[in-house]
Every structure is written in structure tokens, then in C-alpha cells.
């Protein structure tokens, strides 16, 4: 098994642009430890406006892997679900995730972060529904 599972899915998405691969990436992100840049004693994540000038949380996939792309750029690790909540609750455009194996990054926008945290309710099977009429 790879020591860079999140980065592997990021690279796959970068190559294919398959929406199912992106959905798998977001799901894996939520359950992974993510590298971030913190400032001071309280938990807070550094922000970036890289690329298009929109403010996003700066993060790094697979922080335990030795990475030539991200080495020394982060100083803490946090669960991806925490970053999704931060992106959903704060006035930013989402999360910029840098890959550990290739010089690529993906954006999880605010709406996607919210959807990952609050998935739509599962439909009740027809046989468990109340009678109509």
C-alpha cells in the first residue's frame, strides 16, 4: 500500500478529471491527517490567495510522507474533517490542497466542504414509509 494515498488520488484526478475520483478524494481527505501552517498557540490554519486571488485554507496532503514539494512548508497536522468544517464555517473560498508526490494542487470549494460534512439524508425504503392517503 502506498504511503501517499491522498496524493495518489489527487494525481489520478489531475490526469482523468473524473468526478467520481474527485468525490473519492474529498471522502479520503475528510478521514486523513492533513498538513497545515499554524501561527501562534491556538489552532488556526494559514491562508493563501495563490492562483486566482481567492482566500483559501492552505493545506498539504500526506504530511507524513517525505515530500520534495512540501518539505518544511507545514508545521502541524489536523484531521481533514476539521479543515472541511473550518472552510464551511469561515469566510473563505475553500481549501487548497497541495500534493505530496507531484507539483499539483486541488481546491475543495466551500459548497463541497459543506456537502461532505452534511451528506443528504438517506431515503427511507418504500416498505418502511408510512401509508399514503
Automatic annotation (TrEMBL):
Protein name per its UniProtKB record: SseB protein N-terminal domain-containing protein
Protein's organism: Winogradskya consettensis
Lineage, uppermost ranks: Bacteria, Bacillati, Actinomycetota, Actinomycetes, Micromonosporales
Amino acid at each position: 500500500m502506498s504511503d501517499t494515498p491522498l496524493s495518489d488520488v489527487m494525481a489520478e484526478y489531475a490526469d482523468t478529471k473524473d468526478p467520481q475520483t474527485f468525490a473519492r478524494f474529498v471522502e479520503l481527505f475528510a478521514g486523513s491527517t492533513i498538513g497545515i501552517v499554524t501561527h501562534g498557540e491556538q489552532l488556526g490554519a494559514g491562508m493563501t490567495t495563490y492562483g486566482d486571488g481567492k482566500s483559501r485554507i492552505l493545506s498539504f496532503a500526506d504530511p507524513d510522507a517525505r515530500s520534495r514539494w512540501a518539505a518544511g512548508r507545514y508545521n502541524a497536522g489536523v484531521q481533514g474533517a476539521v479543515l472541511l468544517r473550518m472552510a464551511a464555517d469561515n469566510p473563505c473560498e475553500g481549501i487548497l490542497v497541495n500534493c505530496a508526490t507531484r507539483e499539483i494542487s486541488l481546491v475543495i470549494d466551500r459548497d463541497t466542504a459543506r456537502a461532505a460534512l452534511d451528506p443528504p439524508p438517506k431515503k427511507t425504503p418504500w416498505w418502511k414509509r408510512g401509508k399514503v392517503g
